[in-house]
Amino acid sequence: MGLITSLVTLPLAPLRGTLWVVDQVLTAAEREYYDPEPVMRELKDLERRLTSGEIDEAEYDRREDELLDRLEEIESFRQAGRAAAHDA
Length: 88
Description:
Elements: H1 3-9, H2 13-33, H3 36-51, H4 57-87
């Protein structure tokens, strides 16, 4: 970047910094939201609760379906990310 370009775009520096921070927060949030490990822990806990008698079979089936749907969503997101990275 030349001196003139730097001087002309200087007023935009706070905006670029803010956009960078927003991008970093979004990336961290996506990483956390699309992490399969918490879902796997919930599945294990759900099975433990069923075997210990805390919940009945109907509750287990309902909650298991929700968690498996969540895992499918995570896998779809990851595959889309890999496809986008491959295309780039």
